[in-house]
Design a protein that fits this description.
The chain is an alpha+beta fold and about 120 residues long. It has one domain (about 5-120). The protein has 6 helices and 4 strands, in the order αααββββααα. It has helices at about 5-20, 25-30, 35-45, 85-90, 90-100, 105-120; strands at about 50-55, 60, 65-70, 80. It has a 4-stranded antiparallel β-sheet, covered by helices on one side. The structure holds zinc ion (ZN). Zinc ion (ZN) binds near residues 68, 91 and 94.
Length: about 120
């Protein structure tokens, strides 16, 4: 392998890494099947009616630890003012707003959670 090829692979892996981080919505989709806790929490917020639209793309989300404001941008990206979002760049509140605005995604998550709940209720 030449040095040129090595550099190319290095650049490619950096691009993939950056791409993965910036594409918040694709991260959400990748996590649909393993049903991680954040998706479940976000779904609970929707189910319990904890999300209130207070303006154009602005939502009040009543979380477990307080009420936070989630802003949805024109490009579909979301931002929350809770400590979790500040440090990890994602949280159940912003995820809930994302899901609320993607009916197809919300429907598939609803189906997966209901399936999981049925399984859990059997034993
Ligand atoms: Zn949040």
């Amino acid at each position: 392998m030449s040095i040129g090829e090595n550099i190319f692979i290095l650049i490619l892996s950096v691009i993939i890494l950056v791409h993965k981080r910036s594409k918040c919505e694709s991260v959400v989709r990748e996590n649909v099947l393993p049903l991680d806790r954040m998706i479940r929490k976000a779904y609970e917020l929707i189910r319990k009616g904890r999300i209130e639209q207070i303006g154009d793309g602005v939502y009040n989300v009543i979380g477990e630890h307080g009420t936070y404001t989630v802003v949805r941008n024109i490009d579909g990206s979301v931002a929350c003012n809770c400590p979790g979002f500040m440090s990890r760049k994602r949280c159940s509140h912003s995820l809930a707003v994302l899901m609320l605005n993607q009916p197809v995604l919300l429907k598939s998550i609803k189906m997966e959670i209901e399936k999981a709940e049925k399984r859990a209720g059997k034993h």
